[in-house]
Design a protein that fits this description.
This protein is of the alpha+beta class. It has six helices and five strands. Strand 1 and strand 2 form a beta hairpin.
């Protein structure tokens, strides 16, 4: 299904689903969790696909634009991504020391967002919440 969605997205922009783009799509959807672009590139190369680093990064940006993949910032540690198509919405806590990404979902936060949107006569279609701080392990190390 994600292949069809991506093909339609590309076609609407006058682009084709090339062998390299297909390899990136397949690799991303085989990952269950967060990934870094450089690791994605190295995995594709090690599988024998001849894709350039630039091609992998450009395809990753197209996938973000299409809504199939989400970019999760990690400040000076770089960006981390995850495929979101077919997954329930969730938010993230990001450790600014080690870069660990912790997923969570809060029905209360979702309801608060709906109340705020209603109050301001706003129709929300999506949101991203990132809480930055220190994970349990890094907090213990600091003591």
């Amino acid at each position: 299904m994600e292949r069809t969605l991506f093909m339609n997205f590309l076609a609407a922009r006058g682009l084709k689903l090339t062998k390299e783009r297909m390899a990136v799509l397949r690799q991303i959807f085989s990952i269950h969790g967060h990934f870094e672009p450089e690791r994605l590139y190295l995995n594709i190369r090690s599988s024998g696909i001849k894709a350039s680093r630039a091609s992998v990064y450009r395809t990753l940006n197209l996938l973000v634009e299409s809504g199939l993949v989400e970019r999760i910032s990690r400040s000076e540690k770089g960006n981390v991504y995850e495929h979101t198509y077919g997954h329930r919405h969730h938010d993230h806590m990001i450790c600014t020391t080690c870069g660990e990404v912790i997923e969570f979902f809060s029905e209360n936060l979702e309801e608060i967002q709906n109340v705020i949107c209603t109050r301001y006569h706003f129709t929300g279609t999506s949101h991203t919440l990132e809480i930055r701080g220190q994970c349990r392990t890094c907090k213990k190390r600091k003591k």
